[in-house]
Automatic annotation (TrEMBL):
Keywords: Activator, DNA-binding, Glycerol metabolism, Transcription, Transcription regulation. SMART domains: HTH_ICLR. This is Glycerol operon regulatory protein. The lineage of its organism: Bacteria, Bacillati, Actinomycetota, Actinomycetes, Kitasatosporales. PROSITE patterns: HTH_ICLR (PS51077), ICLR_ED (PS51078). The keyword Ion transport does not apply. It comes from Streptomyces himalayensis subsp. aureolus. Residues 5-67 form the HTH iclR-type domain. May be an activator protein for the gylABX operon. GO terms for biological process: glycerol metabolic process; negative regulation of DNA-templated transcription. It comes from the Bacteria.
């Protein structure tokens, strides 16, 4: 049997190094950390960049994990499995909250709604399964961005569409919002996409703790939020409890 391929081992080491921190690394830092010649490290990084496993910041020249690798990290989870594991919890969340419930996953720079439970009343409603939502203007999407389920850089580079005056339409505003989401563990949208509507979402994690989707409630802003536009704490708690329950069913450890 042939032995290990050194170049693949080195490429794997570079990927692990980039994944181990929260900042981009320069060529010299990568080479020094792994004991590689700069020429060797540069050649491997160029190859990884060619297949979108690594991205290079044009301004600083530093490297980070690429979008293709982030996609592979969650591709083990079939969308149908996410939906099937979530159905009972989504039904329960709709019953307890009195609001519509949606579950979303990232798809080509947007949020794909894979499951939708109607608000439990007699009003006329439209099924959203298969709909695509903007990442930066929806609670589901902001959760996916905040926890690395889909990359932020391509979205910012393409331009953040402003749906109204409440939309997070600048990179600075979006970055501040994503930082806060990671701190509190949930996201909200308050009239950021559709005037008069609001939503709350929390991350769904799979095995290993990776965020693979999001679950949330949505409805009229006067039902989701208080008079100051802040989401009601009891709704936040219900959404987070549902997200934890789905995550446990998917094999995620407690966090």
């Amino acid at each position: 049997m042939p032995g290990a391929v050194q170049s693949i081992e080195r490429a794997a080491a570079i990927l692990r190094l980039l994944a181990s921190g929260h900042r981009r690394l320069g060529l010299g830092e990568v080479a020094a950390s792994l004991g590689l010649a700069k020429g060797t490290a540069h050649g491997i990084l160029r190859t990884l960049q060619h297949v979108d496993f690594v991205e290079q910041d044009q301004a600083t020249g530093k490297y980070q994990l690429g979008a293709a690798l982030l996609h592979l990290g969650t591709s083990y989870l079939d969308v149908n499995e996410l939906r099937s594991r979530s159905i009972n919890w989504a039904d329960a969340l709709a019953a307890r909250s009195g609001e519509a419930v949606r579950i979303g996953t990232p798809l080509e720079g947007q949020v794909l709604v894979v499951h939708h439970v109607f608000r439990p009343d007699d009003t006329l409603q439209t099924l959203d399964v298969g709909s695509l939502l903007p990442l930066h203007a929806s609670a589901l999407g902001k959760v996916l961005l905040a926890y690395g389920a889909t990359p932020v850089a391509p979205l910012v580079e393409a331009g953040l569409e402003a749906y109204n005056r409440h939309t997070l339409a600048t990179p600075e505003d979006l970055d501040r919002a994503l930082t806060e989401i990671r701190e509190v563990g949930w996201a909200a949208e308050v009239q950021e996409m559709i005037t008069g509507e609001a939503g709350i979402a929390a991350p769904i994690r799979g095995q290993g703790g990776l965020v693979v989707g999001a679950i949330g409630v949505s409805g009229a802003v006067e039902r989701i939020c208080d008079t100051r536009g802040r989401p009601h704490p009891h709704l936040v708690a219900l959404v987070r409890d549902a997200a934890r329950a789905v995550s446990r069913d998917l094999g995620a450890a407690r966090w």
